[in-house]
Amino acid sequence: MLIKFYLNGDLKEVNSDPDKRAVDLLREDLGLTGTKEGCGEGECGACSILVDGVSKLSCLMLAAQLDGHNITTIEGLADGEKLHPVQAAFVDRGAVQCGFCSPGMAIAALDLLRRNPHPQRIEIRQGLSGNLCRCTGYQKIVDAVEAAALEMGDKL
Amino acid sequence: MKDRAVAAGTALPRADGPGKICGTEKYAADYYHEDMLWAGVKNSDHAHALIEAIDVSGALLIPGVHAVLTHKDVKGTNRVGVPESDQPVLADYKVCYKGDPVALIMAESRELIEKAAAAIKVEYQPLPPVFDPEQALLPDAPVLHENRADKNLLLNGTIERGKGALALEECAFIVEGEFHLPAQEHAYLETETGVAWLNEDGVLELVASTQTPFRDRLELAHALGLPADQIRIKAPYLGGGFGGKDGITVQGLLGLAALHSAGRPVKMWNSREQSFLASSKRHPAHMHYRLGCRQDGSLHALSCRIVLDSGAYASLGGPVLALALEHAAGVYRMENVHIEGFCVYTNNPISGAFRGFGAPQVLAALEQMVDMLADKLGMDPLEFRLKNAVNRGDELGSGVLMSRSTGITACLQAMQQHPLWIDRRQWEKDAPPFKRRAVGIAAGLQGTGYGPVVADVANAKLELLLDGRFRIYSGVADMGQGNNPTNVQIAGEIMGQPADAFELLQPDTGRSLPSGSSSASRTTYSFGNALQGACLLLKDRILARVGQMGMGIYKEDLLLAPGRVRHIPSGKDIPLTFIAAAMSESERVSINTFTAPVARHKDIVDPAVAAAGFPHLVFSFACHLARIEIDELTGEVTVCDYLACTDGGRVLNPQLYEQQIQGGIVQGIGYALWEDFKVSAGEVQSTNLSTYIIPGSLDVPDIISLPVETVEDTGPFGMKGIGEIGINLPYPAIANAVARATGKRIKTGPLSAERVWQVLQAGEEQ
Predict the structure, then answer these.
(1) 3-state secondary structure of A116
(2) Which of A26, B31, B118, B577 is deepest in the core (most CB within 10 A)?
(3) pLDDT, tens only, B407-436
């Protein structure tokens, strides 16, 4: 079926099997491999994308569910060379190690900060609790989200 | 910042950060090719059986299935594994565990692979399996590998010092304990993956998620029957490794597939379930310990028996056992020791390398014994450790001489002065209703590198590019720890250049040079040393060339600065582009080899154990403190605060240092409290991340990391490896706290809510 949606600000029209997983459509057909897959069953959060600004797991969505929506993937956050404040904070605060969870973490952080621009550390931990990281122990990710919140204030 | 030279010792942000956080850095999982086939396997139906026949015809009838390969299609030895090459790429005459691949399927989609696997018919003659390592050692146990003289015994080793176990009789106080620890799954986010193809010259090219690209190349050559120069392997940044990609995972299958794909590229990417079944784990361990001290609290005698379950194949089980023996007496002096260990084949999933490499198991047992003995003696557990800890020049209980930087005493003293330790009693007293609080500690160490027999060699290559920048040819894969971004810091410091003056080439057997595995706390230690030499060589050459340009003969007059060489007396700058243009291609490249120093003291163990890596020369040290709270109603343990004092030599980058310590500790908290890789009669019960629980962001506290800096003068800028030490101590620190809170020792890990609740109930009954 023909699927129409906005992807990182651009209108996309893609012919796809409606039951193809959204993560596969993004990675394989559209070449956006920044969205990762760690488990394929909604446990790890590595495949998180924003659907109309809300964090969703693209491994549990079908391509047809993207139709008519505004989709943001990790590739859509930076403005050219200039990193989004959340991304910049991840780099500066050492929140990235192997980096495989990082795109999903950044998406989850954005979703959180949009709902709660001034979160406490425990609220950040709650907001990221659907995303697994095996490298960092989470502390520097929490540091990064805290720093990004401070940097952005109410601008998000 | 662009014109500022990088400084060693500062928190330089990782060079790989922006690409990873923007989603533009390509991992092995991110390679897709036009016209690509997917590959996957049919697993064994039995834990132990002879294969009588494999009928693939049904699978070949399915439209979209390109080919199905069996062992008959493998032209080489069909065996991988280092140091013991015993694991088939595709099972030939028998299967030894449920993850053995019997057939390799290539198809147009992943969905078709499952379908095809179901259509393959395999006839087996089941053999009696053995799942318990103790039973596998019995004379009449079923044998997995019939060609082995030692049957199911992969390796055993004994350390006998002084009067051995007999000296326990001379002790004023003795404690005894038995511990069972489960397998731990690495659970890296990127499961085993890669792509392979035959290039236009007929060379087999692989892009794989591997910690060992150079070793893989040689292994594939043997297993698949190809000359090594017909194989090229690239290792982009890994989505985690932790030891689980220390060797061949899917590379053998991928290489085989690409040789039979009619020229099409082949991709393989294990599902989480396949990863859990077929990837290696931390060795399940059964340990029996007796430890004794004199009246004055000096440790006098240790006797212990360690049994590790290797599963179906050897993987790195021999070296893991050797390291377990070496670390079994911890950081303490004691003259009388009997340590014996066995690594045993069973029909369980494969065990192998995992961060800590045998140390987390033995330290979990020993450090609980130390606490028990301190209690029996009536001595403060931290004082007890301080009294017995080694200093430089001492020998460990395992006989290993501490001839390099040895900071365990300083670590323990730092802990002793920390408020989390000083205020512990009050904090415990302030427990809210229905909660019990306690503080536990543990101390330990981790050896660096490969030991005295297998040379730990790194070859660094550095090139001055014509645009005045530099390219570092990294020879060691970066599984996430940041060794390759650290190369920028090392080279930047020596060459006086800013971070963006460096281009980082990830390991590529076609372009970079063999530099060993990404493992053993040795990546930055060994490659950093090699790179340091390569930098000095190239720097000398650049300055010499400037001298030849008429800038005088004194090197002291010349300063290598960002993008230029400054002639200090005249203040004149010569751009690096200008200098590079004046140098020939071979002059612009420097190569330097580093061979790690080894311990050359008298034989303690037999040659097979020495070859497996006993003893080490350089060690990192640490002591940890955990403040825990137990919910009396549920048995749930919460780690409220955590302190780690670590001697990793000089800190090269405080941010990356903390990353390793925090990450290792959280993985260790998982090992202590939740991670329980369950296998029943060879069948994996923990099949995915919803049944195998790794720590999430809400499960762990912020961690305080105190670096206790010694100077390790064999390490680049005085550093030592810290990739592993962090995971070694959360288990015993938490277990010691749980024992203080409940008055009971839980012998079987992990310390789950269920087990803690049971001991709370038992306590009340008494």
Answers:
(1) coil
(2) A26
(3) 999 999 999 999 999 999 999 999 999 999
CB contact under 8 A, A27 and B27: no
Tell me, what's the ipTM? 0.99
B703 contacts in chain A (CB < 8 Å)? 137, 139
Report the alpha-carbon distance of residue B19 to residue B503 in Å, rounded: 13
Read off the pLDDT of each residue in B65-74 and give the average, rounded to a whole number: 98
Token pair of B437 as six digits:
């609080």
Residue B486 to residue B652: CA distance in whole angstroms:
8
Residue B236 token pair:
């982009």
Q: Does the structure show a pLDDT above 80 at B602?
A: no
In chain A, helix, strand, coil percent, each to 5? 35, 15, 45
Cα angle A34-A37-A43, degrees, rounded to a multiple of 5: 130
CA A84 to mean position of chain CA atoms: 12
User: Residue A139 CB: number of other CB atoms within 10 A?
Assistant: 26
**Quick one: which of B235, B242, B203 has its CA closest to B28?**
B235
Is some CB atom of chain A closer than 8 A to the CB atom of B662? yes
**Rounded CA separation B58/B105 (Å):** 12
Longest dimension (CA), chain B: 90
**From the list B20, B272, B666, which residue is nearest A40 (CB)?**
B272
Residues of A with Cβ-Cβ distance to B239 under 8 angstroms: 36, 38, 98-100
pLDDT, tens digit, for every residue of B233-269? 999 999 999 999 999 999 999 999 999 999 999 999 9
B755 vs B748: CA distance, rounded Å: 9
Q: Do A99 and B26 touch (CB under 8 A)?
A: no
Cis status, amide bond into B654, omega within 30 of 0 = no
DSSP state, residue B269: E
Q: What is the pLDDT of residue B764?
A: 61
Beta carbons of B169 and B384 less than 8 angstroms apart:
no
Contacts of B696 in chain A (CB under 8 A): 129, 132, 138
Q: Assign residue B98 a region (left: φ > 0; alpha: ψ between -120 and 50; beta: otherwise).
A: alpha
Closest to B22 in 3D by CA, of A105, A58, A152, A43: A105
Cβ–Cβ < 8 Å for B101, B91: yes
Nearest-CA neighbor of B312 among B441, B182, B136, B194? B136
User: Which residue in B12, B14, B21 has the most chain A C-beta atoms within 10 A of its own C-beta, making it the best mutation to test that interface?
Assistant: B21
φ and ψ at B260, to 5 degrees? -130, 25
Supply the pLDDT for residue B766: 45
Q: What is the DSSP annotation of B452-469?
A: SSS--EEEEEEEE-TTS-
Task: Give this prediction's pTM.
Answer: 0.98
Reference B616, options B390, B323, B319; nearest CA is B323
Backbone angles phi, psi at B703, to 5 degrees: -115, 135
> How does DSSP assign B386-398, residue by residue?
HHHB--TT-B-TT
- Closest CA–CA distance from residue B689 to any residue of chain A (Å): 6
Query: Which residues in chain A have Cβ-Cβ distances shorter than 8 Å to B27?
Result: 33, 36, 100
Per the CB < 8 A criterion, the answer to whether A55 and A107 are in contact is yes
Residue B2's pLDDT is what?
A: 62
B666 touches chain A (CB under 8 A): yes
Q: Which tens digit of pLDDT belongs to each residue from B443-472?
A: 999 999 999 999 999 999 999 999 999 999
Which letter, b or e, does each residue of B301-322 get, where b requires 16 or more Cβ atoms within 10 Å of its Cβ? bbbbbbbbbbbbbbbbbbbbbb
Q: What integer pLDDT is reported at residue B552 of this predicted model?
A: 73
Digit-coded pLDDT (tens) for B228-237: 999 999 999 9
Share of chain A above pLDDT 70, in %: 100
